[in-house]
Amino acid sequence: MLSPTVLVDRLAVDKPNDVWAKTPATSFQGEAGWEDITFSLLKNAVDATSDFIVRKFGPGETEEVLAYMGINDIRYPFVILGALKAGYRTLSPSPRNSKEGNLALLKTTKCSKFLCSGEFFSHIAKLSTSMPSLQMLQIPTVDELLMPFTPASTTPKGRASYSDHETLIILHTSGTTGLPKPIHIKAGVFSTFETITSIPTPPGRTSTHCSLLLTRLVLSVTPFFHIFGINFLLRALHYQKPIVLLPADKPPTAELILECIVKTKPSALASAPSMIEDICRLPTGLSVLSTLDFVFYGGAPLAEACGNQISEVTSLYNGIGSTEAFFMPTLRLKDPKDWQYFEWNLEAGMVMEPTEENPNLAEAVIKRRPDGKYQFAFWNFPELQEWRTHDLFEEHPTKKGLWKFVGRLDDIIVLSNGEKVNPVAFEKIVDGHPWVQGALMLGAGHFQAGILIEPSKDHQGDDKEEFIDKIWPLIEEANAEYPAYARVWRSTIMLTKPEKPFKRASKGSMMRQATCKLYETEIEQLYKTQEMAVEESDAAGQSNEDVQELVRKTVRSVLGSRAARLTDDANIFQLGADSLQALQLSRILTSSRLKCNAKTVYDNPTVVQLAKAVSASKKDQSPENAVSREERMSAMIYRHSRFPKLVSPPSPPKSPPATFNVLLIGSTGSLGSYILKELLDTPDISQIFCLNRSVSARERQQKSFDDRGLGSISPSRVQYFTGETSAPNFGLEFPHDFASLQQQTDMIIINAWPVNFNSPLEAFEPVIAGTKQCADFSSGSPRKPHIVFISSVASILNWAAVRHIPEDGSEIIIGEDWDPDNSLPAKQGYGESKHVAASILSNALHAGHINSVAVLRVGQLAGAAEKSGVWNRQEWLPSLLKTSTATLHLPSSLPSPIDWVPTDLAARAVVDLSLSSYHRSTTTVQTFNLVNPHTVSWSFLVPGIQEFYSPTRNIKIIPYTDWVDELKRVSATATDEQIEQMPALKLLDFFEGLNKAPAASTGGEEGKQVDVRFATGHAVAKSKAMAGMGVINGRMMRKWMEEWGF
């Protein structure tokens, strides 16, 4: 085939002024908006790039590989084509790959040369520590490559042609099931692409891809390191139809896409579904999309509601493909309402093979046709006669030949809470036991994983408990490899019956769905009864020693593999217990006629404490030697406030530096991600050091940014460290990392804190100790970094109960002054822990140990107001609404006004207040109430909530007290399925507390309603985000409800 670089050279001669691409203007043009990159400019840039590569790396040897990673701008095409001209084949690793993934790609392709844009240089440099032979080079800017270039005698001219089986570029698989694997894209793929528009179609029908390839101008929101992006590079070359690119230095938000459409007037948009869904949520989204000839999406399903809306205003096309098979030719559908379906072009060789497990589902298989003229896959895999896509489809119920994508032929189990479990590794471990013939993991549609085991022939009919005892070590081994939500309890193990062996395929493999169908009744019964290993017993008349033994056995059973480290004084939550296990533990003890709910477990998280608590409940008394909460807080503050005496006066406050280096502790969560984004958007912030417990923080951070539409993270400004503040030297692997941080940091933002309103104060001691170590870190630093502590209004929520209540009934205002009173926090461990930590920092400040500290009391964080990102479904408000959709009852009011703060705006305020409070005081803790300055009543939002659910649910409005009473009634006999459908049951104590303790929310003694609000004047004066914050409104609520999807 003709070399792509020769094609560029010819187009530069034949059509020098024709537009190849429209890109955001740079200083090269010196004007705002978009600039046209003509074929003449493209040739100039390709020649300049190839010349640069040869001068720096030398000419490529036979199919030598050159890696490139950069921001998603037009340098990708420049490098792909320029490298080809220089004799190289470009490998394009995804910036989201792990270090191990990229190293594997480099080693597999024998690549030792890496070109990158400046944003990724430090990212690539870290690879060289594991690959010393790696040569790295930063590519010139777009401006420099577009400058007039005169080829020298050494400038490569490139080959004129390639055989169809030669590699031209290298992409890779996603690596979701292991390390990414390189896929060599052959020249035959390019030549097939060049002729694909001539593919035969039935009379009167057209191909979907013809619309995409031949339309006037496409706005492409696709990365060039992905096959989707390569599609548009080839389109612009072979069909001379230009593309529009987004600004690469800005997050690809829905708002930015709409702006680009308005300004560049493309005829089509090509994007991933998630971005299109974001566009649909914007007020002007559909009207702007209506100006397009069509919208094209691929890579995943599009939300049905969104697709239906778009199909009403413009054509909507659904594409499908893969790195291995490029794209799969389809026909344009006759009925626009069928936009979710595919109709295969027969020339593609697509055969739908029903699965053995479910004949209603079919796998798409590409079968080699005699000439293979329009089949991409077999250029990349010439040895194959068929390519199995592993994609599953369901045929339209009435229109034959139309197929809807329903999932992958992977064995993923989706639990009822949305968590996904890959059962294969677990099953293989259990299969390894000689008594086991087969193992099948359960849990689809249920809240907890289970396992169905087929005993070997010699052990069929064995006693169940003896059998489980024998295989239990392997169950525990498997559990240790899986997250908490995916672990198997002893009570969820089921054995097959001899007369009902596993269903197996002809080749001997287990047929998962068929076996589940065979045991459908037994599986449902298993989840209904939830038999426990600890039998029910009457403990009401037993001695305290017997009760402690019962508690000990019950805890061991519930903890499973984590019970190996259990002692009578060990905190079970620090051993890894979660809310589901706390609920399970309380149920077992309740079944033994002991008074115990989940809060009892949270308040008494050791065997000794829990045994005393439930023993006392038999006599309706309190445990002996109870210590007041104020005393417990005081003791912990004292324990962590032992600061050395000063040998010299404290350093005077410094003037703020020109730029700040910030240590952000806890960056991967919701608020942390938005804080990181705001820091990156702040010109005064130079370097950001992110300290997280996770070893994969970099990958989690980018995923969190992707989920929230926050764009890419500049690797030159962000460094990641794995550790935790409670450990010596923050637990960093290398001591010099700690020393380097201490030398460079100007400000510390402490954002990492367990959010568990049920845990007692003692459960938070590790992070409290970590706060003290942050003070020590600041004290030992030459820069004496300013400390910003993200606290909570829960740290002062008991203020109205212990302060004077106005006799005239006027409102109570909680100020923004620091108050060390230990009676002020809400009566729960979370608020107490925040107060204790802030008190330790206050003591450090007064001791001259640190120079300055700011405490930000954050109120209820809501979902994002302006950006993407789902408000955590496990929090109390989503739990309230999901429960209300199940009970069909919504509370008419809430005990306190709505002063929530959208998380993205809260992050903006955090950065504002962090910078404005920098070294402004050396004697007092600067305190800010970060709550919404404008409140609204819940009743104002209720009609919109009711209307949102009205198409499918008739939700009635009832008083809040009635709503809580209904929860209490259901809680007494709730099944696991009910708990999943009504998650507010897990927060019953919280909702009861809102109603019973108005002192924590509406002020005054119980039963006396007094309005309470938080002063925000100090915060508003120091933060533009706080000053401009608006009231929570119906539009925000609708956005959040749409994102929750229940």
From TrEMBL:
The keyword Phosphoprotein applies. Residues 542-618 form the Carrier domain. It comes from the Eukaryota. Keywords: Phosphopantetheine, Phosphoprotein. The keyword Phosphoprotein applies. GO terms for molecular function: phosphopantetheine binding. SMART domains: PKS_PP. InterPro entries: ACP-like_sf (IPR036736), Adenylate-forming_Reductase (IPR051414), AMP-binding_CS (IPR020845), AMP-dep_synth/lig_dom (IPR000873), ANL_N_sf (IPR042099), FAR_NAD-bd (IPR013120), NAD(P)-bd_dom_sf (IPR036291), PKS_PP-bd (IPR020806). This is Peptide synthetase. It comes from Podospora anserina (strain S / ATCC MYA-4624 / DSM 980 / FGSC 10383).
